[in-house]
Amino acid sequence: MNNNELKIIFDDIITYLSEIDDKEEIFNFLRDLLSEKEILEFSKRFQVAKMLDKKISYKVIEEKTQMSSTTIARISKFLNWWNNWYKNALYKLNFLSNEHHKGHWS
User: Fold this and answer.
1) What is the pTM of this model?
2) Does the residue 106 lie in any domain?
3) Which listed site, 52, 76, 92, 105, has its alpha carbon 20 to 30 Å from 66?
């Protein structure tokens, strides 16, 4: 299936999520939509991207996440060579985290 076909299939979900400002509502929707196993898989993949971005070794990532080296390599490919969407997400999260902590005592 190509990207355009996937976009069409996923469009209603993307549109709905893009309109939600409440993290609890997003979580509850995704909890209904996805199984616990799918949520864990989804979250682990993003955790792997964060670890790869911090230059953590594949071996350590495998041990901490229980993800296969093949999956880690695939995520690395998307993180570093194919597109910038993981990097964009990591950048935005870092920016939001820094904005949230401005003015807070550390």
Assistant:
1) 0.78
2) no
3) 92
